[in-house]
Amino acid sequence: MENIDLFLSGQKYDLTISPPLMNAAGSLGFFPETTNMGDNPKLGAFVTNPISLHARTPAGTRTCLPYPGGFLLHSGYPNPGLQVALRRFRTHWARAKLPIIVHLLVDSTDSANQMAQCFEGIEGVMAIEIGLPPEIDLHSAYELVEAASGELPLIVRLPMTRAGEMARALVGSSLNAISFAPPRGMLIDEHGKVVSGRLFGPAIFPLTLRNTREAIDSGLPVIAGGGVYEEWQVEALLAAGAQAVQLDAVFWSFNWK
User: Fold this and answer.
1) Where in the chain does DSSP place strands (E)?
2) Across 59-63, 69-73, 123-127, 226-230, least confident range
3) 154 forms bridges with which residues in the sheet?
4) 6-55+89-185+202-251 sits in which CATH class?
């Protein structure tokens, strides 16, 4: 993989991601550990599991359903909430050898502003990534981005299937780059119940490449990801114009080629 660094400049702090490769939120935990990094490809930054303002328990009907080429995951994004996460993980972030990008789940301008400000000045935390709700309207998305803007570089994770549309709507906002959330879908479980969740696996890659090209047309820096299991796919996304790539489920059953 050609080593072209990604540079993000916040109001007060800057971040260089070298190599331009990182894990996606929810794939490797809340901080980098030897046990979860293993022999994985070298990363230029570490993205935490999603953190919400208040604690979230696992979904009552959490499940993982396979399908040809991937799997559907429904988990509910469990996490201890903002204040507990700060107490538990800030020491690990300060000691990390990789720059930390904290992923925040935001659902209002107040929560976006409050959470983003809490991480300014936290040692080791070099950027914020916010995840937007899948069905958010374009005006509300713009307001959430502005509310989360502060001293740290800001990455905004867009619903993948709306990435082009939303990227165009966010031109001129205070974000520094956009990334992609896993696409969502539905499957029938063994009890005949319809389950909604996030989709992972190699079958996602064609959708990732298509949406990367559409999002790049907005002129915003794009961090692509979804269905990336081999190095040629990273090269293809970078060649399409992405400035960095996120990896997700490949870490759970490592098979890097």
Assistant:
1) 6-9, 14-17, 21-23, 46-47, 63-67, 70-74, 100-105, 125-131, 154-159, 177-181, 184-188, 194-200, 222-225, 244-247
2) 59-63
3) 128
4) alpha beta
* CA dihedral sign, ordered 140, 146, 148, 154: positive
pTM: 0.93
Contact 145, 193 (CB under 8 A): no
Span 166-199, pLDDT tens digits: 999 999 999 999 999 999 999 999 999 999 999 9
* pLDDT tens per residue across span 217-248: 999 999 999 999 999 999 999 999 999 999 99
Closest Cα to residue 64, out of 199, 248, 243, 211? Answer: 199
Question: Of how many residues is the chain composed?
Answer: 257
Q: Please name the amino acid found at residue 53.
A: L
Rounded Cα distance between 153 and 195, Å, is: 35
Amino acid residing at 154:
L
Q: From CA 212, how far away is CA 238, in angstroms rounded?
A: 10
For residue 102, give the nearest of 19, 10, 4 by alpha carbon. Answer: 10
- Contact indicator for 22, 46 with CB cutoff of 8 Å: yes
Query: From start to end of 88-167, where are the E strands?
Result: 100-105, 125-131, 154-159
The pLDDT score that the predictor gives to residue 257 is 46
Count of C-beta atoms within a 10 Å radius of residue 27: 19
Q: Which two tokens stand for residue 72?
A: 């559907």
What distances in angstroms separate CA 156 from CA 34, 191, 198, one per listed residue?
Answer: 28, 37, 18
CB atoms inside a 10 Å sphere around CB 50: 22
